[in-house]
Specification:
alpha+beta, 127 residues, four-stranded mixed sheet
């Protein structure tokens, strides 16, 4: 069996520049590449955190801008080593919070949700 892992998560966006700005300047992703699809219509941007074998976020513009905010994929999560510091940092920025406080699970994991520029749910998660 081949070695398997999640390669990327695709998020449909209406405004690629606004989405790239949000994910790089607010959330902290790095833009790894931005290309036109071979069909000449769809534009793709790949973002990550600098590791060559990590899961990436793929932004997709021009495919279908009319998908519901919350579709088949409920959210994607970004690992944090200090979720409280990230919560405090994002409160200082114009970020739309879904959760008013950090949730702590019985196993000690902590998380909170914010909305991305298209209304997508982003979980900031600490194990």
């Amino acid at each position: 069996m081949n070695n398997k892992r999640l390669d990327h998560v695709g998020v449909m966006v209406k405004d690629m520049d606004a989405a790239i700005h949000f994910y790089t300047e607010i959330i902290g992703f790095e833009l790894k590449g931005r290309i036109k699809h071979s069909n000449g219509v769809v534009e793709l941007a790949f973002l990550g955190f600098g590791q060559s074998d990590e899961t990436e976020l793929e932004l997709i513009q021009g495919y279908n801008d009319n998908l519901p905010v919350e579709g088949k994929v409920h959210h994607f999560a970004i690992h944090n080593t200090d979720v409280q510091a990230e919560f405090n940092r994002l409160q200082q920025l114009q970020v739309s919070f879904i959760d008013e406080a950090i949730t702590t699970l019985p196993n000690g994991y902590q998380y909170f949700f914010v909305r991305g520029p298209e209304g997508e749910w982003i979980e900031l998660f600490q194990r």
